[in-house]
Amino acid sequence: MRRFLPLSFILAIGLIGCTDSADTMTTDQTTPEMTAPEITTASYFEISTTLGNMIIRLYDETPGHRDNFRKLVSAGFYDGTAFHRVIADFMVQGGDPYSKDESRENDGTGGPGYTIDAEIVPTIKHKRGALAAARQPDQINPKKASSGSQFYIVHAAEGTPFLDGEYSVFGELVEGFEVLDFIATTSTPRTLGQRVRYPSLTDNPIDRVEVTIKPLPDYVPAPSE
Fold this sequence. Notes:
By secondary structure, this protein is α+β, with helices and mostly antiparallel strands. It has a single domain (20-28, 43-215), classed as Cyclophilin, CATH 2.40.100.10. It contains 4 helices and 10 strands, in the order αββαβββββββααβ. It has helices spanning 7-12, 63-74, 177-184, 189-192; strands spanning 44-49, 52-58, 85-87, 91-94, 115-116, 130-133, 146-147, 151-154, 169-175, 211-215. It is globular and about 45 Å long. It starts with 6 loop residues before the first helix and ends in a 10-residue tail after the last strand. The model is unreliable at 1-27 (pLDDT under 50).
């Protein structure tokens, strides 16, 4: 039987994190910012993982997040990172440069050293496959500014409407929903009932799910049925 996290539990831990700084959506501690000679203008990107590939589309309605994602991908910022937090029927989270190293204790605390102004569009919802920016909690981030690099993809079949208006959704998954399922349901200490020393390890996959992201400038989506 599939196990569902109670909504009250999810909200109690501050969505994708808890009060422990290593387990919040991000603390955006400074890491060296990478540069690239040319920044892509693509709207579609392939997220290649050890469990398969997914394709996402960025929204023009959130230009700040769109352009930042393009810049980071062009610089190779995400290559070698991992999905460091996965909760089935909720979301999968990645984009932390600290997830590249051997230590998992600092996963979820890294970023490029800056945040992005919130771009919360009322008509863009947290549907299944929604791509959204992680952020620090309201207590220290009342303007809901987004992490400079960390993102999450909604796995819940009915979406996560209780997050609408709280986080900036800046894209969506268009291909690879079965891969999203694989990532979201991979084993973690929580699903195996294992005790961990650091809260940040609770939902960190036992088997590392490594990521590489590349632009798809020539991608043409399949026509809608």
